[in-house]
Amino acid sequence: MKTALITGINGQDGAYLAELLLEKGYMVHGVKRRSSLINTDRIDHLYQDPHDEDVRFKLHYGDMTDSTNLIRIIQETRPDEVYNLAAMSHVKVSFDTPEYTANADGIGTLRLLEAIRILGLEKKTRIYQASTSELYGLVQEVPQSETTPFYPRSPYAVAKLYAYWITVNYREAYNMYACNGILFNHESPLRGETFVTRKITRAVAAIALGLQKKLFLGNLDARRDWGHAKDYVRAMWLILQQDKPADFVIATGITTPVREFVTMAFNEVGVTIEFNGEGVDEKGYVKSVSNSEAPLSVGQEVVCVDPSYFRPTEVELLIGDPTKAKTKLGWKPTYDLPALCKEMVSSDLAILRKDSKTQREHLV
Ligand code: NDP
Ligand code: GDR
């Protein structure tokens, strides 16, 4: 039985990857940092009582900013594969916490690589580093591939640039099987609520149910190459199953503006919207409603721009070229954006219906 260690196991990708590896018969260890409230919702269905026999899923407390615990966990678990998914992953927040982001996302990766080396596991343990399309930042060429020059545009991206190169360096210096997956944006019903797609699908569901009036967003012109997290964790696993270590771009090859994703999400609840105005004065209005349940009227303003969501330096356009992954890994996405959006809106509708029912029951 193969053993995997996943840092950031309770994040979006950690949850899908843990599920995939358990299906494949792995023993899965996860690193989770301590929090004042339990935040394992995404992986609670995978939990196994540690007192049971044949347990294949185990959580360990740890933090990417503490090398002592990383060394201890790796020593204890001696993994065949390490997936380094832990990170302060919010680009806008990284401008508020740049030093912490550098420590967790940049130096954290070094700590993990060093722990494996110090313990003499550099020939046994394969390492996946969660690199990002944010490395491309200011557009140098489109579509972006493994050979496109990097130009990071946020403390997050700069920290991830260090992590990218230290992974390459450990591969070259110590002959380690260490790889970067340069993943473009990937979303799902498990996406954190402050990333734009989930913020939109949650708000659209809330507006359709009469629980929210308006959706406030930042840059509507930004374009992203959005895929489904389920497809992307499959790519992570494939990257570690090759004869030789290498770096791969994982993307759909299609880019869509934020504004269009908003329109798509409203369509899912039977509401057509149109945008008017420019820059900070741009607004989205209801054009028609075919869903009699939605408490909306034609002409109603449902989307506004709030400049506080703008970033000091923005990444305007991301579009990936996944040719290498398709040819070398045999990977291709199974979801397109409309299917992803549909799944997210329908999941948020179900969550909010359940929450509002629970709240009504509390009031009775
Ligand atoms: P999430 O934000 O959903 O999950 C991040 C995970 O990292 C959480 O479990 C979080 O724990 C954990 N974490 C944060 N800081 C630390 C720390 N100091 N020590 C230990 N754990 C920590 O991100 P995703 O699942 O979306 O992304 C996974 C990885 O892939 C990240 O590294 C991200 O930067 C990268 N990436 C993501 C892309 C995407 O589109 N989703 C695209 C490209 C790269 P907690 O719950 O306690 O906060
Ligand atoms: P991103 O994702 O920065 O690409 O990083 P996010 O969803 O936060 O932003 C995408 C684009 O939407 C614009 N935007 C808004 N973003 C947020 N969060 N909130 C808003 O209200 C809003 N309005 C417009 C942003 O300006 C941006 O252009 C994600 C993270 O998962 C990273 O960890 C990962 O590395 C990259 O994707 C690839």
Task: Walk me through this protein's architecture.
There is one protein chain. With 364 residues, the protein is an alpha/beta fold. It has ten helices and 15 strands. The protein has helices at residues 12-23, 67-77, 91-96, 98-118, 155-174, 196-208, 229-239, 258-268, 323-329, 337-363; strands spanning 3-7, 27-32, 57-61, 81-84, 126-132, 178-183, 186-187, 215-217, 223-224, 227-228, 248-250, 256-257, 271-276, 283-289, 301-305. It has a seven-stranded parallel sheet, sandwiched between helices. Strands 8-15-14-13 form a four-stranded mixed sheet, with helices on one face. A two-stranded parallel ribbon has the order 7-10. Helix 1 (12-23) links the parallel strand 1 and strand 2. The mean pLDDT is 96. Guanosine-5'-diphosphate-rhamnose (GDR) binds next to helix 3 and helix 6.
Secondary structure: elements and pairs:
Elements: E1 3-7, H1 12-23, E2 27-32, E3 57-61, H2 67-77, E4 81-84, H3 91-96, H4 98-118, E5 126-132, H5 155-174, E6 178-183, E7 186-187, H6 196-208, E8 215-217, E9 223-224, E10 227-228, H7 229-239, E11 248-250, E12 256-257, H8 258-268, E13 271-276, E14 283-289, E15 301-305, H9 323-329, H10 337-363
Parallel strand pairs: 1-2, 1-4, 2-3, 4-5, 5-6, 6-11, 7-10, 8-15
Antiparallel strand pairs: 9-12, 13-14, 14-15
Bound molecules: NADPH dihydro-nicotinamide-adenine-dinucleotide phosphate and guanosine-5'-diphosphate-rhamnose (GDR).
Organism: Parapedobacter deserti
Function: Catalyzes the conversion of GDP-D-mannose to GDP-4-dehydro-6-deoxy-D-mannose.
Enzyme class: lyase
